[in-house]
UniProtKB/TrEMBL annotation:
Ranges of biased composition (kind: Basic and acidic residues): 10-28
Name of the protein this chain belongs to: Uncharacterized protein
Superkingdom of origin organism: Bacteria
Upper lineage: Bacteria, Bacillati, Actinomycetota, Actinomycetes, Kitasatosporales
Region (Disordered): 1-37
Length: 73
């Protein structure tokens, strides 16, 4: 009776227990919706205050929705 082992001759397909890392360009942090100043403040781990909302508005004006991408993995 033979034991079943993964076929080592196959190309590197994802197999159970595979520890490969997903490349950054395949990871997504947004779902395609607009980013609000509140979203940016919360993603930065800050409290929603007038001062922090103003910071977030400036950041969104300068960087657009990418400002959120820079904060999240």
């Amino acid at each position: 009776m033979s034991t079943s082992q993964p076929d080592a001759s196959r190309p590197s397909e994802a197999r159970a227990g595979d520890d490969r890392v997903t490349p950054d360009d395949l990871l997504h942090t947004r779902n395609g919706t607009d980013v609000s100043p509140e979203d940016l403040v919360l993603a930065a781990g800050r409290d929603v205050t007038p001062k922090n909302l103003e910071w977030a508005r400036r950041k969104l004006d300068e960087e657009g929705p990418a400002a959120l991408d820079k904060l999240l993995p």
